[in-house]
Amino acid sequence: MTISALQKARAQYQPKLPKSLKGAVKLVDGAATESVADQAEIKELFPNTYGMPLITLEEGSEAANLPAVNVGVILSGGQAPGGHNVISGIFDGIKKLNADSKLYGFLGGPGGLVDHDYMEITAEYLEGYRNTGGFDIIGSGRTKLEEEAQYDKGLEVLKKLDIKALVIIGGDDSNTNACVLAEYYAAKDAGVQVIGCPKTIDGDLKNEMIETSFGFDTAVKVYAELIGNIQRDANSAKKYWHFIKLMGRSASHIGLEAALQTQPNITLISEEVAEKKQTLGEIVDYMAGIVAQRAANGDNFGVALIPEGLVEFVPEMKALIAELNDLLAEGSDAEKEFKIIQKSHRLEWVAGKLSADASAVFQSLPPTIATQLTLDRDPHGNVQVSLIETEKLLGEMVKAKLDDMKAAGEFKGKFGTQYHFFGYEGRCAAPSNFDADYCYSLGYTASVLIGAGKTGYMSSVRNTTAPADEWIAGGVPVTMMMNMEKRHGHMKPVIQKALVELDGAPFKYLAANRDAWAIGTEYLYPGPIQYWGPTEVCDLTTVTLKLEKEG
Question: Given the DSSP bridges, would you call strands 102-106 and 118-121 parallel, antiparallel or unpaired?
Fold first, then answer.
């Protein structure tokens, strides 16, 4: 197979490990834990894995002499840079425990466990994937492990392969499922441990013990490079406003970090919109005001960052979407009537069926967006919010507002738009030095937890703004991160999503600087991810983590 010059060079990179993982390792138990909320309910649901202590890994005095162990690994959900290094860390870790240990990968995500679709990951096979992006080593999938029949089916192949531990690499939902699986196998005394690893480029799987999810660092660096490139273009051509939508449906961590790295003119944060109960009109007025102020200074260009899930955080849009979901529910009489109405009359018909407030919002939307809201629905009949072209919605509404301002003599500039959505571009990028090191450490930590017989834990590596040598490896009980939430009409235990904290240091830094960034052209250009060069370029972590630790 032909590989690029970069691939050849990155294959030689040796990920850095915390000092505690380089030799013999000992486990130190910390305090017993409890869930972040709903303690009684979570404890009742997880009697075998609730209340376990935090674990810290420290340098030991003598290496453990452990029997060989067979381990399974699953990549679950969307891709994130560094997944291959998590697997590399697991492989090297279990081989260090005992050279006869084996690693099996289940193909295509959790479905591979249920369907008994697997392969052994050998040293020779793994060599081609170290320090590379993507999940193509074994593939990923979104099958949810939620039913006992799935657990039992999976147990059949685990017994067949004599697998004693399963590592699930995924986001909050995948790790919730991992914890449920750990509890089920513990209750059955099945002899299978389950360990999780924190993955998601969205950055919403984080807490005191999980400082960041892997892949976030690399993905934002990729987006920041692209944003910087566009800012150069905007400042060169001086004739376009670029509206850039960024991944992050449930939280705005990507948008916030990208803004801290590039200093664009406008950055919308979904959590702030929800906190202030801002209307769509207020958001548009804010954006149009900045466009007008820059135009008055002769700057008919700019860059605006928009989080993917913004419309769900606008209270009036959230209410409208809920009404549309009820009105056009699959199989309802209204849905049948909607389908036989002439397309040219559908928007008018929908507006007449909504409440007065929802109807007013619906009619204020550009026709293309209003049509999207009525047509693009998921298998449950709900609006697919991630498919809404929020960047175009805002761009068209800002243009309409500026037309009104021009008629009133309040705007004398020009307004041209270019639209972008950065998502897939960042999910499978070659991991940054930080993610390469962090992921390898997460995988290696998982192997130590396996060797110690632990289950229901998530691999944790902290103190990540320090040099890798000083990172603190350990394990966190997954139940510690859980609360009860309503999902599909039922209360379920889930890992609590971490939203942008409006009283946190990263957002406060943005808030303190955004007025200056809005009117001035104070763009930063991070450039591409650099692997070789000064430490302050190559090994730097996110601005978010830096500000959080300084605060």
Answer: antiparallel
